[in-house]
Write a structure and sequence with these properties.
single chain, binds S-adenosylmethionine, S-adenosyl-L-methionine, methyltransferase, six-stranded antiparallel β-sheet, alpha/beta, Hnrnp arginine n-methyltransferase1, Rossmann fold, 2 domains, 12 helices, five-stranded parallel β-sheet
């Protein structure tokens, strides 16, 4: 079970459909024309608790020991060594400093390693112990609040939470991009996709629910409502396999282009889905997972010039960049960090939303509905999940909060 730190009720720190709604793009144009500096959300008591959770060793140990995660970042840094060597890098949320140090090893001239958690104190010691103090500058503070004296060529960050958006760290990367990234700069990772699939998982359901039907020969079905609530009210972080998936292809709930995304796009994300079951099997819930890609800034095919990240574009350039990012084709060289059930396991595992009552599906039966993810008003680090699903003429809604 993943524990990225204490301080939250489940013991973990709180870790648009394709294309951008027209209204948002228009309002962003307005922002670009005004050339206003990005504004930061105030630091709340919840944020302080969140940063405090990251001062504990356990969460960093778990992340660093996740070789899929850490090894993929290291490989991506080496792949882009030509864009890092001699350049200035900003590591947003440096933790122990591991990614900042990889960048220094790759030849960065200077790395600003920023973290609002007191883990930055250890990062500073680690930098000294590795004789990198002349290159890596550790800063204790929110990236929204620290003062970096120069613009940067590269932003690197490990910001992904469960279900991609949990923890709400991506707005801090957007802030840093708009404030400090030079035109044509590199963002690692550059793209992310959140996926969704219907799952069948009889063993898991039985373990939590059917157990109560016969306990040492005693009928305890009266416990069932409590058992369902306790087991399935909140999203579960678990590992499933490809065999649990009821249908392929998957639905892409959301695609993120870190070069162009704006904060407003993250406030509420809705995706509609329509699956056809491949099997006769009970539908127990839905699984979510993500992957991130490490792509360089897009090359414009017309003039072979680097395209600028959104924070530094004129409105025309920006719309050109957005449409091209939609046509992005994954090359064989693209490094991908995947948290999919069929890939090597990571500490993110998969996020499962179980239904209180399974639905018996026949092969080819349609399951359709929508999922909406919104930042919680109670605590911006939490994620509200509104799930609608219909099958066989019956419709349901499930509301849950990832705390
Ligand atoms: C998932 S950890 C990654 C740590 C490290 N980069 C690594 O890969 O091992 C995210 C870190 O970002 C920090 N963080 C989150 N939001 C931040 C912000 N706005 N400003 C500074 N640090 C932040 C957290 O305190 C935490 O240490």
């Amino acid at each position: 079970m993943l524990a990225r730190g204490p301080g939250f009720s489940n013991g973990h720190p709180p870790r648009p459909r394709r294309g951008r709604p027209r209204g948002l793009r228009d309002s962003y144009r307005g922002l670009l024309q005004q050339q206003e500096p990005p504004s930061a959300r105030p630091c709340t008591e919840f944020d302080k608790a969140y940063f405090h959770a990251y001062s504990h060793i356990g969460v960093h140990e778990e992340m660093i020991k996740d070789h899929v995660r850490t090894g993929t970042y290291k490989a991506a840094i080496m792949q882009y060594q030509n864009l890092i060597e001699g350049k200035v890098v900003l590591d947003v949320g440096c933790g122990t400093g591991i990614l900042a140090i990889f960048c220094a090893f790759a030849g960065a001239r200077r790395v600003y390693a920023v973290d609002a958690s007191e883990i930055a104190l250890q990062a500073n010691e680690i930098v000294k112990d590795n004789n990198l103090s002349d290159k890596v500058i550790v800063m204790l503070g929110r990236v929204e609040d620290v003062n970096i004296e120069e613009n940067v060529d590269v932003i690197i960050s490990e910001w992904m939470g469960y279900m991609l958006l949990y923890e709400t760290m991506l707005p801090s990367i957007i802030f840093a991009r708009d404030k400090w990234l030079k035109p044509g700069g590199l963002i690692l990772p550059s793209h992310a996709t959140l996926y969704m699939a219907p799952v069948t998982h009889t063993a898991r359901y039985s373990e939590s629910i059917d157990f109560w039907r016969d306990v040492y020969g005693i009928k305890m079905s009266a416990m069932l409502p409590l058992a369902k609530q306790s087991a399935f009210e909140e999203p579960c972080i678990e590992t499933i396999t490809g065999e649990n998936i009821l249908t392929w292809p998957l639905v892409q709930v959301m695609e993120v282009d870190c070069y162009t995304i704006i904060v407003q796009e993250l406030e509420s994300v809705t995706a509609k889905y329509r699956f056809s079951s491949m099997l006769n099997a009970p539908l127990h819930g839905f699984a979510f997972w993500f992957d991130v890609e490490f792509n360089g800034p897009a090359i414009s095919p017309s003039n072979n010039h680097l395209q600028f990240p959104s924070g530094s574009l004129s409105s025309d350039q920006h719309s050109q960049s957005s449409s091209q990012s939609k046509k992005r084709v994954k090359s064989d060289e693209t490094i991908v960090l995947s948290t999919a059930p069929e890939d090597a396991p990571t500490h993110w595992q998969q996020t499962l939303l179980y239904l209180y009552e399974p639905i018996e599906l026949k092969q080819d039966q349609i399951i359709e509905g929508s999922v909406t993810l919104t930042q919680s008003k109670e605590n911006a680090r939490f994620l509200n999940i509104h799930l609608e699903y219909s099958s066989g003429g019956r419709s349901f809604i499930k509301e849950s909060v990832m705390r």
